[in-house]
Amino acid sequence: MHHCLFVRADKKGRVILLRFKVQKGFTLIELMVVLAVAAILAGVVGPGFREMIFNNRITADVNSFVAAAHIARSEALKTGQPVVLQPIANNWNNGWTVDETASGGANVHTFTKQSDVTIASGLANIRYSSRGTATSVVGTLQFCDSRVAEEGREVSIGLTGRVSTDVFVCP
User: Fold this and answer.
1) Closest of 99, 107, 103, 86 to residue 157, by C-alpha
2) How far apart are the C-alpha atoms of 61 and 33, rounded to whole Å?
3) Residue 71: CA atoms inside 13 Å, Cβ hemisphere, count?
4) Rounded CA separation 99/131 (Å)
5) 139: three-class secondary structure by DSSP
6) Rounded Cα–Cα distance for residues 3 and 63 (Å)
7) d(CA 103, CA 17)
8) 52-109 pLDDT, tens per residue?
C-alpha cells in the first residue's frame, strides 16, 4: 500500500494535511475468486467450443464444394461449353477441380480440402452441359468427421444442376 498526501484548506484558511491509503493490485482472495470463475466457465464452454470447431470444419468443406459446383455451372453457361467438376486423383478427399472438359481441358479452378473431414460418394464426377444442367449421373456426397453418430452434411446435385445441402447422421 502507498500513502498519498493531500493538502486542503479549512474554512478558516488553515492548511490541513490529509493522508490516504491507496491500494494497488488485488488481494489473494480476489485473485482466487477470479480463477475459480474462470475455471467454471472453461469447464462449461470447452466442450461446446470443441463441437463448434468440428462443425465449422465440415461447413467450410461443404461451402468450398458448393462454390466449386456453382463455378462449374456458371462457367458452362458463360462459355457455352461443357464443364466437369471432378475429384483430384479420383478421390474427393484430395480436393476437386473445375475443368472445361472431362478429357483434360483447361483447368478453371482447383479446390484443396482444408480439413480432416471425410467425403463419401459414388460419384466419379459431375458434368455440366453448356446449358448448365447436370449431364452425368446425379447423386450425393456425404461430409463427416471423426465423430461417430454425429451430424454431417450431405450435398446433392440435381439434374437441373442445382446444388442442395442437408443434415444427416454420420455412420
Assistant:
1) 86
2) 42
3) 18
4) 16
5) coil
6) 62
7) 94
8) 888 889 999 999 999 999 999 999 998 888 999 999 999 999 999 999 875 557 888 8
Could you give the angle at the alpha carbon of 132 between the alpha carbons of 129 and 133, nearest 5°? 70
pTM recorded for the entire structure:
0.73
Do the Cβ atoms of 170 and 152 come closer than 8 Å? yes
The full length of the chain comes to: 171
Task: Quote the Cα angle for 73-57-134, to 5°.
Answer: 20
Coil, strand, or helix at residue 54?
Answer: helix
Which spans in 6-165 are helix H?
28-79
Please give the grid coordinates belonging to residue 43.
469447464
Query: Which residues, listed in sequence order, are joined to residue 19 by a DSSP beta bridge?
Result: 5
Distances, alpha carbon 164 to alpha carbons 31, 84, 96, 150, in Å:
52, 18, 18, 20
Task: Take residue 36 and report the three cell numbers written for it.
Answer: 475459480
Closest CA to 63 of 100, 106, 99, 113: 113
